[in-house]
Amino acid sequence: MDSGGDERGRTLTIIETAKSAGHARIAEKNTKILDNLDKIITTCESCEDDEVVLGGKVAQLDGAS
User: The pTM is what?
Assistant: First the structure.
């Protein structure tokens, strides 16, 4: 499985390539994706070992699994 950083790096490359080729719409769409990835990564990084991210928010991991 890829880490968020890998996906973030690929998205940055897509944005840079699209901008240099004059594809503003592709760059714009991928900038929105990058913003969402940044939110997800930041939320995941704030989790403790007994927490998960559900619906964009940190929640306690259920010990019943």
Answer: 0.73
